[in-house]
Amino acid sequence: MPHDKGLDNTLEVLLKEGYEYILTKRKELDSNVFDTRLLGEKTICLSGEKAAELFYDNDKFKRNGAMPNRVLNTLFGQGGVQTLDGEAHDHRKKMFMPLLSNEVIDELHQIGQKEWDIALDKWKDMEEIVLYEEVQEILTRIMSEWVGLPVKEEDYPALANDLTKMFEAAAKVGPAHHAGKKARKEREKWLTEIIKDVRNEELDVSADKALYQFTFNKDLNGKLLDEEIVAVEVLNLLRPMVAVAVYINFVALALHEFPEEKEKVEEGNEEYLEMFAQEVRRFYPFFPFAGARVKRDFEWEGYLFEEDTLTLLDLYGTNHDETIWKNPDEFEPERFRNREANDYDLIPQGGGDHLTGHRCPGEWVTIEMMKIALNFLSNKMNYVLPEQDFTYSMTEMPSMPKDKMILKNIERK
Question: Are the C-beta atoms of residues 46 and 60 closer than 8 Å to each other?
């Protein structure tokens, strides 16, 4: 197997090349698979469509033990669905699958339209806003209402801030990481008490809400999930959706960087909104890679994959693979017109099957939230972008425009 030389390349990954590490080494080594050493252990790196299909083969890879505790303690939580394998994973994943229904998307669309309208009325009276910060609260409000969480009006800013700390802290060290870890711990405790109240009938929640359905979900043995696990999974609904604020910032940046595409959005229809959103997901950095461990020894394309070896799939690099995407470094929403569905080429939120694999079940919710934001930014409001830093880092995770998209002189069209 081709090898990236060095005693340990962790610093190169985190500080020097970031999102582009696997993509760069893949080109240097002329191979879609190579091994390296990260965090003191041998690690196999994969990239490309065929590699993605291999990576999401549940007979060959497991997720248990793949993610370091620093990620579990901030991003995913201990015992969440992302850490499960086999029958336990498939059973837990079914709890999330109603997120894919048309009824859910329609409901979230209505809530989203309402919250963006409210925010726009507020912004008209403000000199300027920082879009990233404002959208965090919008998304927190949308998801809280949809989930069925009892959140007081004055508590939304703090909840949005805590959810943001969780996804921002995963790749951080020092105080920022500890802040994310503390935020998750406190919010899991908060949710555990809410779940207890629902089970004890001290809090009335509609049976069609995700909070109710998760609270009374049962494991493979027919036993109610531990309250702490339900809290983890509720946060695994809220936290990823608030992270969509990163994508929405890139939506605003794309409208600025590619004005000819903005004109098409203003003239276009629902189809073009989705094409634009999909290209934002492909083009800009979000998650750099996904991790798993080899379940048992096997060979692939003549290479030996040894049991328990940490393996990373290059999400960003696969989305910029020139053997998959024509002109991958060009922003071209039209590439998604009449595109045939494929589970392994466009993988910003993972690949494979939504039901049995580890692809994010909230992917279509993400796209819907982006489309609403795109429609408002293009067709329902006027604004000015003052002088600011629009650049974004390829080593900071999550990446976003440096000044987080400052908007001023906002008015309704």
Answer: no
pLDDT of residue 185: 92
Between 353 and 112, whose confidence is greater? Answer: 112
Q: How far is CA 103 from CA 39, 241, 338, in A?
A: 44, 18, 24
Give the count of domains, the chain. Answer: 1
The pLDDT of residue 75:
61
pLDDT at 229 over 60: yes
Please check whether residue 353 lies inside any domain of the structure. Answer: yes
CATH number at residue 235: 1.10.630.10
Mean pLDDT of the chain: 89
The pLDDT, as a whole number, for residue 354 is 55
Residue 193: which pLDDT band, with cuts at 50, 70 and 90?
A: very high
Q: Is residue 302 assigned to a domain? A: yes
The verdict on residue 25 lying in a domain is yes
318 belongs to a structural domain: yes
Q: Write down the pLDDT at residue 77.
A: 62
Quote the domain boundaries for residue 184: 10-412
pLDDT, mean of residues 343-362 = 72
